[in-house]
Amino acid sequence: MKALIGLLLLVFGHNVSSVIHSLQSFHTVSSGLSTFPEYVMVAMVDEVQVEYYDSNTQRIITKQDWADQDYREDPDYMERETENRRGNQQVFKGNLGTLKKRFNQTGDVHIFQRMNGCEWDDEDGTTEGYEQHGYDGEDFLSLDLKTMTWVAPVHQAFPSKLRWDHDTAWNQYVKNYLTKECVDWLKKLLAYGKSTLQRTERPRVSLLQRSPSSPVVCHATGFYPNRVVVFWRRDGQELHEQVDPGEVLPNHDGTFQVSVDLDLTAVPQEDWGRYECVVQLKGIEDISTPLDPALIRTNRGDKSHILAFILTGVAVLAVVAAAVVGVFLYRKRNNYEKASQTS
């Protein structure tokens, strides 16, 4: 897989000029979790949380000052949307009960999730919509907008697929929301939160290494937006071997971080000067950091930076767990689409 990704990057190169904006909603209903709300709904714009609702409070909480502009302009709108969330709560609870019967389950912890949303490329204007359902951490149903049919990766989903495939009115409604209404909302929210969502924060780049035998980590943090490209070069050529890229993760302050490891096991230290870490982010010049032992923070010397890095990671895990209960469906959607394209 790494070789395939490297080949694609070699052929097409990096592209950080185009920004793809997204609006997503995550619905999670669970059973057997006494300390967790039965139903949670989270809305995100460009992976920034803008709205939260759960079955305990039964009220909508906006997470950004600019996200409640429609609510302030139309007080009845908040009441209508709150009733919609309460209705969704009952629907999803019923769906969970149905799935437990199909899988012949009774007790224990079970989770049903739905993720839907849209993406908009701010350069060429192209859009994409998607809807994905998951059960107990696995794909359950997804909508193929091109064929207007539902994909069922497990046999327990076939009854729903057959029923929904023939419900043309409902499918047309979903398509209209994903391809038009959702995109309109996304553009409106982008306009409301322009100063926040369309800003550029320059990354801080550090080289970290736990021990002499550990990989050297190129760690970029504090950047915004999250569409950053970080890679290692040797003699001016991008490396695809020896490299282990990490995922972009959120920081507690709304910025992002990412780490890319470089394995130097077979590289003598006198050749380290041939290597450099490159960070690319739209709106700023490329940041190049040479692989200089004097620039590497390690556990053998100043531990403060390593400790801050570890604590930041802990904070990130807490933020992700609290804010976005169903984000893994987005990852699974991407993995599923990549597998389908490969097939």
TrEMBL record:
Keyword terms, alphabetized: Glycoprotein, Membrane, Signal, Transmembrane, Transmembrane helix
Domain called Ig-like: residue spans: 203-288
GO biological process: immune response
UniProt key word Transmembrane helix: yes
Signal peptide range in chain numbering: 1-18
Keyword check for Glycoprotein: yes
Gene3D superfamilies attached to this UniProt entry: Immunoglobulins, MHC class I-like antigen recognition-like
GO CC list: external side of plasma membrane; extracellular space
SUPFAM superfamilies linked to this entry: Immunoglobulin, MHC antigen-recognition domain
TM stretches of this protein: 306-330
Pfam families on file: C1-set (PF07654), MHC_I (PF00129)
PANTHER family registered for this protein in UniProt: MHC CLASS I ANTIGEN TRANSCRIPT VARIANT 1-RELATED (PTHR16675:SF237), MHC CLASS I-RELATED (PTHR16675)
Family: Belongs to the MHC class I family.
Descriptive protein name: Major histocompatibility complex class I-related gene protein-like
Species this protein is from: Gadus morhua
Taxonomy of the source species: Eukaryota, Metazoa, Chordata, Craniata, Vertebrata
Gene: LOC115529326
